Amino acid sequence: MAGELYIVATPIGNLEDITLRAIRTLKEVDIIAAEDTRQTLKLLNHLEISKPLISYHRHNEEIKTKELINKLLEGKNIALVSDAGTPVISDPGGEIVKEAIKEEIKIIPIPGPCALITALIASGMDAKEFTFIGFLPQNKKNRKEKLEQIKNAENTLILYEAPHKLLQTLEELKSIIDKRKVVLARELTKIHEEFKMGTIEELQKDIINPKGEYVIIIEKNEKTRRQIKLENLNNLTIEEHYKYYEEIGLDKKEIIKKVAKDRNLNKNEVYKKFLKQ
Ligand code: SAM
Questions:
Q1: DSSP letter string over 77-129?
Q2: Which of 31, 98, 190, 260 could form a disulfide with 13 if both were Cys (CB 3.0 to 4.6 A apart)?
Q3: Mutate-to-test residue for ligand 1 from 90, 120, 159, 166, highest number of ligand atoms within 8 A of CB
């Protein structure tokens, strides 16, 4: 019979945050697959658990997935942990979960600490609906697209960022989120845990030399979808604006009416401009 795959969350700072179930699971499995075996060894030593460890990180995920799936099919029970928090969430683990599903291996999540949820619940931001962005892409084009998504998003947004990139990311966000409030949640569950709220400009004045780990939470956009669309259209030239409606299939009369309304112009003015087209 195949073994079971346990996806085990571990503390993001405070070791007391490990759950009883996580401890029992780590004690009972045959193997622990860890993002950084040295890091996990510290946790296991603290818990007085001794287990065979296999490294499973971003750079060997594909090869190790096969190896671990074989071990699971041989009947071994395996726990997957990352350096801190919940595996799979901006951490390795997604591949083995997908493969295990294909092989009909039972997957058992062991929930626990996760930086995004820990930050959100104490941030005061609207938590009814939120989007987790994770780390912004490094690739220029993908990053630009993601920033565009952030600009137009209506709900609370959550990002992860490394301390040495925080100031640059705040600078990039400044131009697109306007005066929306931001919460910086730092060193969660640790001695120097702190939450700072303000506009990006205010936070930039406050944070000169970022240290520790950060979660960035951006206030939901109070503007309606229609207001955002209108702003985007009005940032186009009048010709581009016309073309936008043309491409969605409106006829000339309708387009002129709409462009005039969007831009708060007189219909005749717009009509004259496009008369010859
Ligand atoms: N899987 C983890 C989780 O469940 O949150 C996240 C791993 S990701 C590689 C690491 C990022 O999570 C950090 O760069 C930071 O943005 C955030 N993070 C992790 N621990 C944190 C903490 N104690 N305080 C603030 N942010 C933290």
A1: -EEEE-SSB-TTSSSS-HHHHHHHHHTT-EEEEE----HHHHHHHTT-S--SS
A2: 190
A3: 90
Distances (CA, A) of 211 to 200, 208, 261: 17, 10, 49
Nearest CA among 192, 198, 194, 193 for reference residue 218: 198
DSSP assignment, residue 10?
Answer: B
CA of 12 to the centre of ligand 1 (A): 7
> pTM for the full model?
0.84
Q: Give distance in angstroms: CA of 274 to centre of ligand 1.
A: 54
Helices (H), the chain: 20-28, 37-47, 61-73, 94-102, 115-121, 140-152, 163-177, 200-206, 225-234, 238-247, 252-262, 267-274
Q: Is 252 exposed, middle or buried (0-12, 13-18, 19+ CB in 10 A)?
A: middle
Bridge-based pairing state of the strands 31-34 and 53-55: parallel
Work out the number of other CB atoms within 10 angstroms of the CB of residue 123.
21
* CA atoms of 86 and 161, how far apart (whole Å): 16
- Tokens for 107, please give them: 């997957």
Mutation test residue for ligand 1: of 17, 58, 215, the one with most atoms within 8 Å of CB? 215
Cβ atoms of residues 9 and 112 within 8 Å:
yes
d(CA 216, CA 237) in angstroms, rounded, equals 34
